[in-house]
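Researcher: Structure for this, please.
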Amino acid sequence: MGPAANDEDLIGLARSLRTLMELAGRTITANAAANELALRVTGHLGCPMSEVVPVTEQFPIWDHVNVQRGIDAYLAAQGSTGTWFGVSGAGRRPDEGLLSLITMADHTPSVRFGAASYGTAPIGPDENTEVVELGQIASAAPDGTPVIIALHTVKQFGPPRCALEVLAADAAAATAARDEIGRLIRAHNVFRGQVLSFGASEHHGNELVSFLPRPAVSAQEVILPDGLLETIEQHIVGIGEWSAGLLGSGQHLKRGLLLHGPPGTGKTHTVRYLTGRLSSTTVILLTGTSIRYIDTAAALARLLQPSMVVLEDVDLVGMDRDFSDGSNPLLFSLLEAMDGVGGDADVTFVLTTNRADILEVALADRPGRIDLAIEVPRPDAACRERLLRLYARDLTVDADLAQVAAETEGVTASLIKELIRRIVLASLRAGDSPPVLRASYFADVLAEMNSEHHALTRSLLGAGTAVNPGPAQGRFVRNQRSRPGG
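Model: Predicted structure, token format:
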């Protein structure tokens, strides 16, 4: 007979048994949760996991909100009243499909049934909505066959994206549900009628879509030579207003507008006016490096027509020579994208450039992409006076603005806007409250801006040569008189 167990042995045994029981309890709980995850799916679909068929579609991450809206519309149409549920626990890869995660739960206790996870996504310049980041919900295919609709985002292992996954015991049912959700995604697209810009994040080079407020610019605020704005409006707005008649007569709707001229003359301002004028049109703005997303933008424009795609500073594309001296992949992509939209689409391409000569050969070699080219010139004396009055509105003016306009030949709208700002600042420094646009301030500020050390400033504001105030510096002072409001 062996020696009797001492108290320490009994205590050690008790601790071991307690640890074993706790481990068994956790395992049973985890397995139950894992089984609940699978049972939720198989119980609704009426088949074992081995017979579940997944049908998946991937979307760029910026389309996540539209996928959510499509799913929500589908669930409402089907009368689905269930709640979203998810997968929780460590050990799951974020790029795994939800069917893989459910299957993994059978042999990975840490992966188990849990609550769906949520995030937010913008639906306008100042409004967000809730979206499912990882979850699934029971529903039915259009023919009534049970399906599980799943949505999850993947922000690792490549460009961020979201995946729509439909699980069913029958592939045809899953496909039908996926296709109907796709139709509703297009029908409820939150981008329709919005002003959008494309950009890139610092990770993976993926494209991002941002909402911009629609500018409110009146026709009176667009200072162009007589008849020029009307010509632009007839081409952009008029074709859209007569779209049915044009299509019925076998004519195309797609149009291209090129606004060219020196920097600072009002090309971008004109685009802002058109964006506000076309209040229900989808506007997609591409500028700088974001022009490389022209293919995506053109496809989105066709989907969301009537639409307008704006490509600013296209001369930068025309000078792109990244691949070889004889090729221009970005410009080629732009022209191909304009071709690919199709003549029946109510889509406008608006290009702005400071260097039309760079693009002229390429555009002439492929006629039809641009059907109206408008030069936006430096303002003449009459336009300069209108600009002075525009930027001086609501301010007290004690100067002859017609004389200022006559003596500032060669300046741009940008320079005139900056001129007024500097004169207001000079007035404030002189102790005027409220500020007054005095003739002497015009003379002093023009002299300063015309000095040699401001040559680069003038160039950056679009005035390539010196402003020539000439004898006006004296006349401004002699002709001082009160002209409230300019």
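Researcher: Any notable elements?
Model: DSSP finds 17 helices and 17 strands in the chain. The first helix runs from residue 7 to 45.
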